[in-house]
Amino acid sequence: MYTLYYSPGTASMAVHLALLEIGAPHRLQLVDFAQDAQHGAEYLRLNPRGQVPTLLIDGVPYFESAALLMILADRHPEARLAPPVASAQRAAWYQWIAFFASSLGPVYRQWFYPQELGSEEHPPIVREALRQRIEAAWSLVDAHLAAHGPYLLGPDFSGADLLALMYMRWSRNMPRPVTAWPALRNYADLLRSRPSWQRMYEIEGLTEWAA
Ligand SMILES: N[C@@H](CCC(=O)N[C@@H](CS)C(=O)NCC(=O)O)C(=O)O
Prior knowledge:
The chain is globular. A hairpin with a 2-residue loop joins strand 3 (54-57) and strand 4 (60-63). It has a four-stranded mixed sheet with strand order 2-1-3-4, with helices on one face. With 211 residues, the chain is of the alpha+beta class. The protein is built from eight helices and four strands. The protein has helices spanning 13-22, 41-46, 65-75, 88-112, 124-148, 159-169, 182-192, 195-204; strands spanning 2-6, 26-30, 54-57, 60-63. Glutathione binds at residues 10-11, 38, 50-53, 64-65, 105, 109.
């Protein structure tokens, strides 16, 4: 049994999707951002970063969405969220997960949390720099998908696509949402037609960017 500490539409989404794809029994525990519950003493004992997601596995808490996705893929090989270890596909799987976690995750964080860079609102020069970095990352993914899609690993869906989908959704109110890139648009539509996406929307109570 797993317990996922989550908040709707946030970085817990990729892990929630993975649990649904796997069909693994799990319990959801809302971390109420409106109450600043992520910074409460009880939650900080589980996740000293004060962020979601946290996943309890056999009572032990782990954090970082990309890591949680990889852990779940390893624990449930029958769900085929990860290609076989040491295969060329597995190498590409690591590459894309690391790419999203390192090239997009932190930059999105800076975009959405300007106070962590020292101001309530980004000065235009900082906002522009972040915008360019986010769009450069998406341009790279778009070119890859146009040449080698429809999924990150080509013909086969994998857990890396769940991480990509979460980050794609976060672009919806940005100057250039991912749906403005042709291959990314098709990719988003393909992934949003999965039952796990629709189920996750119902459970988390989301409406925007449903499909
Ligand atoms: N690198 C982390 C980022 C987690 C993160 O930034 N979570 C945000 C929601 S998307 C959060 O918990 N925000 C609340 C806060 O920082 O107070 C991951 O991928 O798990």
